[in-house]
Amino acid sequence: MVKRSRIIAFFLLVVLLGGMMGLTAEKIVKNIKLGLDLQGGFEILYEVKPTKEGEKITKDVLLSTVSALNKRINVLGVSEPRIDVEGNNRIRVQLAGVKDQNKAREILSTEAKLTFRDVHDNVLMDGSDLVEGGAKQTFDDKGNPSVAIQLKDANKFKEVTQKVLSMAPNNVLVIWLDFKEGVDSYAKEVGKEHPKFISAAQVNEVFNQTDVSIVGNFTVEEAKQLADLLNAGALPVELKEIYSTSVGAQFGEQALQKTIFAGIIGIALVFLFMLIFYRLPGIVAVVTLSVYIYLILLVFDWMNGVLTLPGIAALILGVGMAVDANIITYERIKDELKLGKSLMSAYRIGNRGSFGTILDANITTIIAGVVLFVYGTSSVKGFATMLIISILASFITAVYGTRLLLGLLVKSRLFDKKPHYFGVNPKDVLDIAKVTDDTDVPTKFARLDFVKRSKLFFIISGAMFAIGLVLLLTAKLNLGIDFSSGTRVDLMSEKPLTTEEVKQELKQLQLEPKDIVLSGNNNEMAIVRFLGVLDQKEISKLKSHFKEKYGVEPNVSTVSPTVGKELARNAFISVLIASIGIIIYITVRFEMYMAIAAIVALLHDAFFIIAFFSLTRLEVDLTFIAAVLTIVGYSVNDTIVTFDRIRYLMKKRKVKTVDDLKDVVNKALQQTFGRSVNTVLTVVFTVVALLLFGSEAIRNFSFALLAGLISGTYSSLFIASQLWLVWKAKQLKKGKQKRDQLEAEPEV
Predict the structure, then answer these.
(1) Domains within the chain, CATH numbers bracketed
(2) Is-above-0.85 flag for pTM?
C-alpha cells in the first residue's frame, strides 16, 4: 500500500528547505567577509627587532607594538584589520580593502621617531618631548603646507634654540624622522635635491614657546600623513619585512568572478551526473548538496571567517567530495537491489553498510586538513578551515539528510519493485530464491582480472617512479618565491603583453627580472620574478609605474630566504605528520598491512604530482602543498572503500589458500570499481571547472589536484590492494608452513 503522506512530507520538507535558503542565502553571502585576495589589500609578516643593542623582545613589547600598529591603521581608515603575533618575534598584518597600498606600507613600517639635531647630528630633542596627539597639519605664513606640533617644555626649547644660535654660521636646527645612527648625516644629505631630513631651519633667535611649526617641501597629503604618524606615536621596535603579498582590487574582483563562475559550472556538472546516473537518489543528492553549500556558508558566517580564494576552491572541491558519501550509500543500495532484496531491505542494509566506510574516508581527509591548518600560512589556513567545515557539513547532509529524504521516498512504498528509479537495470536483478551468502553482486566489471595483471601495474608504477626520479634529479622543480625566496610581480593589462615590452618597462625602473612568463587567454597577464627581495621604495615605485601604464595595480609578493626555508621545512613536516596520522587510523580501523599499503599508495600519488610538476615546469608554491596534502587525505577514500569490501568478503568466506585470497581481492576490486570511478569523477568535474574557468591564481593548484586524482584512482585500484595481497599471501604461506611443521612433528 502506497503511503502518500510520506511523499507529501518529502515535498513539504524540500519546499521548506528551499524557501529558507532562498530567503536567507543572500543576506548570509553579503555578511561573509572577503579576504585580501578577493577584494584587494596586502599582508605583511614583520620580524620584530630591538632598536637598541642588548634589548630583548618580550611579550609586552610585542603587544605594545601591536597597539602602535593599530593606531596607525586607524589613520588609514581600514575596517576590520587583522594583526597577529606569531612566535616570539613576529607580527603578521593583514589589511583587506585598503585603497592606497603604498601609503599603508609606508605608514606601517615607519618607526616615526622624531629627533631635533644640530648640523653635527647630535640629538637635542626627540619625540618624548612632544605633547601626545598635539600634531596637526597647518599652513605657514607663505601658505605652504606645514606640521604644527606642541612641546611639553618651553624652557627646553629655549635652551635648544640658544645652543643652535651660538653655533653660527652653522646655526641650523635639523629635524629628522627615523634617523639611522652611523648611516645618515646632515653633511651627506644637505646638498641633495630630496634630502632624508624633513626640515632644516636656520635659527636666528631664541624661542621660548611650546608651539613649533615644521616647514619643509610638503604637499598637503604629506603634511597630514606626518602629523598622523606623530600622533600615532613611535614604534617601540624596528620592523623588518620578511614576507609580503599584495593584491590589486581589480585582480581580486576578477579572481572572485571567475572562480564563482567555475564553481557554478562544476557544481552543475555534479548535479547533472547524479541525476542521470542515480535518478531518484540523484534528486535527493541534489537537494542535500544544496543544503550542504548553504550550511557551509552559514557556519562560515557564524564563525566570522574570512573567505579567501583557496577557501572558495575548497568549497567547490567540497561539493565533489560531499557527493562521495552519497555515491557510496547509493551503490550499496544498488548492490542489494541486484541481489533481489526488497527496496526497504536494500535501503536499510545500504545505509548500515556504508556508514563505517564514509566515516573512515572523511576522517582521513580531516587529518590532512588539520595538518594544513596547523602548519599553513594565512591563505592555506583559510583553505584548510573551509575543507574541514566542508567535510563535517557533507557528513551531516550526505548521511543524515540523505537518510531522512530518501527514507521518506522508500517508506512510501511507491517505488517498490521499480529498481530502474534507483539506476538499476531490471535485467541485472537476481532471483532472491537463488541467492545465497556466496552469491556475488552482478557487475559489469566481473570479467576484469585485476590480480592477474598485478605485476604489470607494479612495472608501470616502477617505470613512472624511475622517470620521475630522473626528472627531479636533472630538471628539478620550478620553485616559486614561497620556497626559493625573492619577489614575484603579477601584471595585468587590457591588451596583450609581450616579454620585451615588460622588460623595457622594468628597465625604466632599473630592475632586472629573473624571468617573465605570460599567461591569460590573450597574454594579458605577465608573471615577473626577481632573485632578490625588492625593498619598500622599489615596490612603491613599481606599483605606481604599472598602475599608470596599464590602469591596474600589480600584485607584489616578497619572501625572504629565512621564510622560504621555513615554508619548505613545514611542507615536509606536514606531509610526514599527515601520513603518520593516516597510518595510525587505518591500523586501528583495519590492520597494519592495509595501513602500510595505503600509505605506499599515498606516497606514490604525492611523488607522481611532484614528478608531473617537474616535467611540466609548473611553479611550485604554497597552494601546491595544499593540493598534495588534500590528495594525501582524499585519495585514500577509494582505498578504504576497497579495503572495506575486502574485509566484508573475508568475513563471508573462509580464506585458506593464496588462491582464495586472490579471489577475494579480485572480487572486491570488481565490485568497487564503478563506485571508485564515480566518486573520483565528481571531484574531477569540479577540479576541471576550476582549471578551465577559475582564477589564474589557483591554476597550478587545480593542475596538482587533477594530477593527484588521476594518480590516486590508479593507486587505489591497482597498487594498494595488490600490495596488501602480496604481503598477506606471504603471511598466509608462513602460517601454513608452521601448521605443516607442527603436524609433521612425531608425538612423544
Answers:
(1) 4-35+249-424 (1.20.1640.10), 36-109+239-247 (3.30.70.3400), 114-234 (3.30.1360.200), 454-476+563-739 (1.20.1640.10), 486-559 (3.30.70.330)
(2) no
